[in-house]
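In the design runs reported in the main text, the only information available to the sequence generator was the tokenized backbone. The following block is the verbatim input for one such run; it is reproduced so that readers can re-run the procedure and compare outputs position by position.
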């Protein structure tokens, strides 16, 4: 008997994950971004990460075309940024502080950390693509992480 989607979603919601904003700049110089919680390290030697992107996401094709992207790991103070990049909005970057990294992708200000990557491979993952990136630059800040748990944002308690 196949597992139904509501049960699967409920079970997976019990796994807390960090929240990131994936950014890329397409070959025409337009910025694209999306909130992503399906992100993790893949290898230390060489340094590789993976992120899962829904195939219908507006960033999907521009990311593949550019071959470069950044992962911005959000702090507990950046829930509004996570929400902004989770919604369909052409003005996601308006009013935000950011710089550009070596990849040309947006590096958001105030994040816990960021990684800049070149695309190594893209694998089929059902309704998502599994994007593997080689980390070419990275920097860490300080603070507490923003978490995603049971369909909502959460923070670590201490």
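Verbatim output:
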């Amino acid at each position: 008997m196949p597992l139904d989607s509501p049960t699967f979603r409920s079970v997976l919601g019990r796994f807390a994950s960090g929240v990131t904003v994936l950014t890329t700049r397409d070959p025409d110089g337009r910025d694209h971004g999306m909130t992503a919680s399906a992100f993790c390290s893949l290898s230390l030697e060489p340094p590789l990460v993976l992120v899962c992107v829904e195939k219908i996401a507006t960033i999907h094709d521009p990311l593949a075309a550019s071959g470069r992207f950044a992962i911005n790991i959000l702090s507990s103070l950046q829930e509004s940024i996570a929400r902004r990049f989770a919604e369909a909005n052409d003005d996601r970057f308006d009013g935000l502080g950011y710089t550009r990294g070596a990849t040309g992708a947006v590096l958001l200000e105030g994040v816990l950390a960021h990684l800049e990557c070149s695309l190594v491979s893209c694998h089929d993952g059902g309704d998502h693509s599994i994007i593997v990136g080689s980390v070419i630059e990275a920097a860490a800040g300080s603070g507490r992480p923003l978490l995603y748990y049971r369909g909502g944002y959460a923070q670590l308690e201490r």
